[in-house]
Design a protein that fits this description.
Blueprint lengths: L26 H4 L2 E7 L6 E7 L2 H8 L15 H12 L8 E5 L5 H8 L3 E6 L2 H15 L4 E4 L7 H7 L4 E7 L8 H11 E11 L3 H12 L3 E7 L13 E7 L9
Parallel strand pairs: 3-4, 3-6, 4-5, 6-7
Antiparallel strand pairs: 1-2, 7-9, 8-9
Helix pairs in contact: 3-4, 4-5
Length: 258
């Protein structure tokens, strides 16, 4: 387990599980599931999201991960809630567009994008996140996104084949920049998958890593429109969190990659 990164649990992550069975979920190793009702702050849209009830067990499993990736995907973070809200406030941006979500987590933003009419490819490092994303999308909006396991440091040929040679017009990402080591791989990936003039919607709660990432893009000639969300959030421990949703637009003529 990485010693330089702290994973702070929501208190609700240790609440009692519900009797929920999701086909394919490895309850023996990953523990039971529970369902939470999430109300988006501005649109008022309601989603019922199934998530792991025992995050401590997932942390134990992550100790054996060769990439040392912590199970951030298993929590409902304010950034994902804000990004889902932003998508539904401006559904024309995603309607009938090929959209990629990086780090789909439990599928809240994915469900919002599907509800808005996106043709969505949802990706995450952990296959368990993809399983619950499909389940939560199907239960909330009646259909599933395409899903693909993705390691940013070693993106697969299959992933790039799905993206195509011209890139996509929109990429969604919520709270994906936890660690310094994430910045360069994400910059490289965005450079390969986002079309000239395309948009990266990035939701983040004020981490320095996100600020550095955004500055790299601004230095390359990108523009940034920022909107802020202050909640209310479902977990009281997040009451002071402010999420910035960046609408970062790539130049129509790509600038230097350096």
């Amino acid at each position: 387990m990485r010693s330089d990164v702290q994973f702070v649990l929501h208190e609700s992550s240790r609440s009692q599980p519900d009797d929920i069975l999701v086909p394919g979920w490895d309850r023996e190793h990953r523990g039971p599931l529970r369902e939470r009702t999430i109300v988006l702050p501005r649109t008022g849209q309601t989603f019922r999201i199934v998530q792991p009830a025992d995050i401590d067990r997932l942390l134990d499993l992550a100790a054996n991960d060769p990439e040392e990736n912590l199970p951030y995907w298993a929590e409902l973070w304010p950034s994902g809630i804000a990004l889902a809200d932003a998508v539904l406030l401006d559904p024309r941006r995603v309607h009938d567009a090929l959209v990629i979500e990086l780090g789909c987590g439990l599928g809240l933003t994915a469900a919002a994008a599907l509800q808005a009419g996106a043709r969505l490819l949802a990706t995450d490092y952990d296959p368990a996140a993809l399983l619950l994303t499909r389940w939560n999308c199907r239960c909330n909006v009646g259909r599933e996104p395409m899903v693909l396991q993705l390691n940013w440091r070693r993106p697969s040929a299959e992933f790039f084949a799905l993206v195509g040679s011209t890139g996509v017009p929109l990429v969604l990402a919520a709270d994906v920049l936890y660690e310094q080591r994430d910045i360069e791989p994400l910059l490289s990936l965005i450079d390969r998958i986002l079309a000239p003039g395309g948009l990266l919607w990035l939701a983040e709660p004020g981490r320095q890593t996100a600020a550095l990432f955004v500055q790299h893009l601004l230095d390359r000639g990108w523009s940034d429109e920022i909107d802020q969300w202050t909640g209310p959030w479902p977990d009281s421990s997040d009451s002071k969190v402010t999420v910035s949703v960046h609408r970062l637009q790539r130049p129509h003529i790509p600038g230097p990659a350096g």
